[in-house]
Specification:
Blueprint: H1 5-8, H2 22-39, H3 43-49, H4 52-67, H5 70-74, H6 78-90, H7 93-98, H8 101-110, E1 122-128, E2 131-137, E3 143-153, E4 156-160, H9 165-179, H10 183-195
Antiparallel strand pairs: 1-2, 2-3, 3-4
Helix pairs in contact: 2-3, 3-8, 4-6, 4-8, 6-10, 9-10
Length: 208
């Protein structure tokens, strides 16, 4: 997940669905809570609210960040490419080698990297047993085909917000065209904005 620099400006603050289903209300609370936890730099809270699929997502990208060369990183979809490059930007090589998903999330949340971004609006929460989906609205408030997934684990709703990567890919590519930049240059701009330092010279290089 990135919080999400230039791209985040494309979506407005959260508006929940307003339905009367208690389970849907709990899903909405999960959605609102994880952004509050990010803004509060409360990594343990974030970890409690992330679905297992999101934890697995960061474990997979950490493996790529440690081993992939430039060609392999550039072959990633824009959102994943940004996440891998951010891992290399924010962490030292020894830190990157030692991280698993949970320790990386603690590291990045505690630094405030996931804080302060605007939240996509959601609506049409649909609960099916221990899973749920919510539609993401665009900047004009219209429902899109993009969704967040939720799963109930041990009685607690958790969000798989990396399910929304297809939406963020579209925003990245749209912003790059509007700014007349390559996607890579836009990703570098976001990284420099978030890290408040120039992109590392060796950012395309694997750590081992």
């Amino acid at each position: 997940m990135f919080k999400r620099g230039l791209v985040a400006s494309a979506v407005a603050a959260v508006v929940l669905c307003g339905c009367n289903d208690p389970e849907a209300g709990e899903v909405e609370m999960c959605y609102s809570a994880i952004y509050h936890c990010c803004d509060s730099r409360d990594a343990e809270c974030v970890l409690k609210l992330l679905a297992p699929a999101s934890i697995a997502y960061y474990d997979r990208l950490l493996g790529i960040a440690r081993t992939a060369n430039r060609e392999q990183v550039e072959a990633l979809r824009p959102t994943e490419r940004l996440e891998v490059l951010k891992m290399r930007q924010f962490a030292t090589r020894p830190e990157l080698a030692a991280f698993d998903a949970s320790s990386y999330i603690r590291f990045i949340v505690s630094r405030g990297v996931w804080a302060g971004g605007e939240k996509p609006r959601i609506s049409n929460v649909k609960v099916r047993g221990d899973t749920a989906t919510a539609n993401i609205r665009d900047e004009k408030g219209k429902a899109t085909h993009h969704k967040f997934d939720f799963v109930k684990v041990d009685g607690m709703w958790k969000i798989d917000w990396n399910r929304s990567d297809d939406m963020w890919d579209e925003y990245i590519e749209k912003d790059a065209r509007r700014e007349r930049m390559s996607v890579n240059n836009l990703l570098f701009f976001i990284i420099e904005e978030e890290s408040e330092m120039p992109v590392k010279a060796d950012i395309w290089e694997p750590s081992k």
